Amino acid sequence: VAHIHCEEVFGILGENYTFPVKINKKLVEIIWKKNKDKVAEWEEHSQAVYFPSLKNGGSLNNETGSLTIFNLEKNDTATYVLEYLPSDENNPSLTFILTVLDPPSEPTISCNVSDDHLVLTCAADFKRPLTFSWDFGSITDYKQQQQNVVFLKKSVDASEKVTCFIEVSQTAKSSEFSLAECFL
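Above: the chain's sequence. Below: its structure in token form.
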């Protein structure tokens, strides 16, 4: 019985994207297709051939079988299929559904004041999970609830600033927030 390997993946507009191929074999032939059109092809003892459908170019790794697409555009959103020899009988090909997303927005920090705490929330507009991190300057008394939510003691110095960082793929953004805004 053939198992179909199908994975949904995403890349960010303007970045380079490498498909996460995991094949533990010595490959002798590789064909990549985008919506059934060939984009790249390689056979043992020869150079890789790239087709015009890979507009901004790409790079094929004949050791791993993975394809890197340079400078992603919206129209790189497609279904990509890797066919390779020797094939794994269970997985004659690997299918990746690539979605190209706009980069996340600049993060925004909002502040709510509860009884004895300031609750800072960092948010950014993006359709997939982001990694959040914070820089608190010289503030030492804080609790982190989730990655994007932080509790500070209300007695904190209002002149302090905090910074929220967001990261996804190769894109990172940050924004600074003055705690004085909590007390306005």
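The radius of gyration is 23 Å.
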